[in-house]
Amino acid sequence: MSTSSTAPAVILLGPQGREPIGDAPAGAPAWRIVRMDRPLSADRPWAERVAFLTAHAALWQDAPQVMAWDDDIEIQAVAVAECLRLMRQHGLSLCQPGLAWNSHFADATTLHNPCFVYRHTSRLDSAVLAFGTAALRRLLPLMQAMPSRNALARLLPACQDVPQAGAAVLDAVQALRTSAPADEEFAEPDWPAVLAEDGPQHEAALSWGGLGLRGQRVALFDDSRETFLGLLAAGYACAVAEPLPIGEVFLQHFTRSLAPPPAALDLRAPDQRGSAPTLRRSPIIDHRRAPSAV
C-alpha cells in the first residue's frame, strides 16, 4: 500500500480481486484495500458493491476517492497512484484508467489513447471505475436502480452536470481487462420510461475533449476542435492496421460537433419537468454500419 500524510483513498475489491501490482512511488496518494466478503456476480457486480457501500458507509465516507474493479482487472500500483493524483489535480470525480490495447473491452472509446492525459467521454467501462466520494454518494441511488454494466457505461457519463466535461478516461493510466465482456455489455439496456425520449441511448460512443499530452486543453465544441480531432485520430492510428476505422472516428466526431453539446439528463418524470426544451436530435453517424459506396 502507498503511504502519504493525506487521508487514504479506498480500493474496494471482491474476495478474488487482484491487488495493485508492485509498489507506488514515495509520496504518492495513499490508499487502503477494503475487501467484500461475498463474491461479485458476473453480470451485475455493481448491485453488490452499492449494497456494500450503503451498508458500510463508515468505511469510505472520509476517503477522498473510492476505486473499484472487477476480479479480472490487472493494474500497477504506480497506475493507481497516478489515477488518484490526476483526479485531485484536475478535479475529476468520475473516471477510469484507459484500457490497454491488449485488453478485452466493450467499447473502443475506453481504450488508451497515447495523445491525451485524459479524455471526457460518453462511455465508461464499469469493470474499473474511480469516484470522488461526494460524486459516489450522489450516484449510489442511480446505480442501485440501474446496476447493469451496459446501463452504467452510458448512464454515469450522461448524468454529469456538464456531460462534455464530466466523466473521463485517464489515458495517462492503463489497466488490463483480462476476460472477455459478456454479451449483455454490447446490448442496449432496457431504459425506463423517464429516459425513453432523451436518455443516453440517443448519444453515440464519443470523446468530447480533454487534456492533450503536451498540456493543451481541447474540445469538440469550441475553436480547438481541429486540434482535438487530430489528436484523437493520431492516437488511435497507433493501434489499428487499417485506415478505415480512423476515418470513421474522425467523421463521426466531426459530424457530431455540428450539433449542440450534450445536455444534462433530467431524471424527473415527464409530467414533473414543466416546459421541457425541444428534444435535441444529433446527426450522429453510426460507425457500426458499413460505409456506402461513393
Outline the structure in words.
Residues 283-294 have a biased composition (Basic and acidic residues). Residues 262-294 are annotated as: Disordered. This protein is of the alpha/beta class and 294 residues long. It has a domain at 9-185. Helices cover 26% and strands 18% of the residues. It has six helices and ten strands. The chain has helices at residues 45-55, 77-90, 133-145, 149-158, 225-237, 244-257, and strands at residues 9-13, 31-35, 65-69, 73-74, 94-99, 116-121, 128-132, 168-177, 207-212, 217-219. Strands 1, 2, 3, 4, 5, 6, 7, 8, 9 and 10 form a ten-stranded mixed sheet that branches. Strand 9 (207-212) and strand 10 (217-219) form a beta hairpin. The longest helix has 14 residues, at 77-90. The relative contact order is 0.13.
β-strand percent reads 15-25%
Class by SSE composition: alpha/beta
Q: What are the secondary-structure elements, in order, as H or E?
A: EEHEEHEEEHHEEEHH
Query: Termini distance?
Result: 57 Å
Mean pLDDT: 89
Q: Tally the helices: what do you get?
A: 6
Q: Main beta sheet, described?
A: 10 strands, mixed
How many DSSP-defined strands? 10
Helix content: 25-40%
Low-confidence parts: 276-294
Q: Please state the overall shape, judged from the principal axes of the Cα atoms.
A: globular
Instruction: Supply Rg.
Output: 19 Å
